[in-house]
């Protein structure tokens, strides 16, 4: 059932984003920022954790999960380090994921020959 919940929640998030892209004049970058902020706000309100426990990867993989990860990192760092945690917490919490994205993107650029669209 974990896979089913991850599938429908992740699909629902993607469908809502597609509706925003199709029905509004919001640019994709702004929608991505909206998703990250939504995850952070839901995490701050304590609503994202139960949602993530139900949906698993369906809630943690999309950008809303990244926003929640940033929020959790900032919250923990502020508790441990004080106000400086506002600046360091999100970076520490998300460092592994960001590093992996950069490394794998770099490796993919060596393996594949990208072509420009005409």
TrEMBL record:
Keywords: Membrane, Transmembrane, Transmembrane helix. The chain crosses the membrane at residues 6-21, 33-51, 93-112. InterPro entries: Spore_V_AE, SpoVA. This is Stage V sporulation protein AE. It comes from Mordavella massiliensis. The gene is spoVAE.
